[in-house]
Amino acid sequence: NPVAPPDLSKCHIATQGAPSGEDKCCPPYSMAEIIDYDFPRTPLRVRRPAHEVKEDTDYMNKYREAVKKMKELKSDHPWNFYQQALVHCAYCNGAYDQVGYPGVALQVHYSWLFLPWHRYYLHFFERILGKLIDDDTFTLPYWNFDVKEGMTMPEIFTSDENSPLYNKNSRNKDHYHPKLLDYRYGYKAGSGSNASSDDELVQLNMSYMRSTFKNSMQLPELFMGDPLRAGEPDSSGKGSGGLEGIHNGIHQFVGPTTNPHTDMGNFATAARDCMFYSLHANVDRLWHLYRNFRGNRVEFNEPDWLDASFVFYDEHERVVRVKVKDCLTPTKLRYTYEEVPIPWMGSIK
Ligand code: C2O
């Protein structure tokens, strides 16, 4: 059976790896009525690369304004920036049990749920930001970390400590621009690409991206993550897909090296950093590219994936239910990605 949304009224302390003091992730809308999501019919929104929007003053003013407003909402408002971040904690650190399976945490990482869940999470977050500034074309920028120009932390998040986009909690400042990102970075000893120059690191990153795509072209679980069905704990031998693996390295690259690596290096707190959403926008874009390379063939043609469902708080302040099968085409969610060169692609197919 497909994984079902949690019973919101049974949210509890997060039991999976949240650092102490960060384990209360329950959203404030536990008794709300849940309705099926009415998919938007608004203009198509175009997400652009973070290293390019920095020159667009109008856009940057809007983005800062939207995040500022979101951070200033009442702390228990479901749209509040930190409430939104707690949603990630709840689904990542075991604040819910799966309905009908007491003691089995609902977990949206390490499996085929990873990409669809985060696609919806960004969708609602982006639309709430747009709503706060009354702009139905607003988009999050994507951290275009698969091209050389985007292979550093985007400066829109690091250059101004007083910007609403800045995160004053801990980050690894030694990794700020112009330090190059390493897809194999990790806190574990022995991680890293050991490149001898920046040029070499760019090449290593790009060939890692290319092989991640190429090796998984016929076998989506290698890219997306293994199947996870209702009642299965994420620890039952399931594995993350290759894209999630690269994404984990980037989380760690941004977070501080000291335990518990909050904010970005720890899932319970990662979404408190605006950089999180741009990292995930590019992860989402890479999934979109993967589908295109496969001729938009469905990755897993089975109800256990297609009918898996989640709930989110939407831009009309309603709690809505969504299914994996309805997010496979970004245009259905009324957004797309500005097309940019894909230098690592070569001959993937
Ligand atoms: Cu839900 Cu980047 O992780």
From TrEMBL:
This is Polyphenol oxidase. GO terms for molecular function: catechol oxidase activity; metal ion binding. Its cofactor is Cu(2+). Belongs to the tyrosinase family. Keywords: Copper, Disulfide bond, Membrane, Metal-binding, Oxidoreductase, Thioether bond, Transmembrane, Transmembrane helix. The chain holds residues 80 to 428 of 596 of the full protein. Residues 109-126 form the Tyrosinase copper-binding domain.
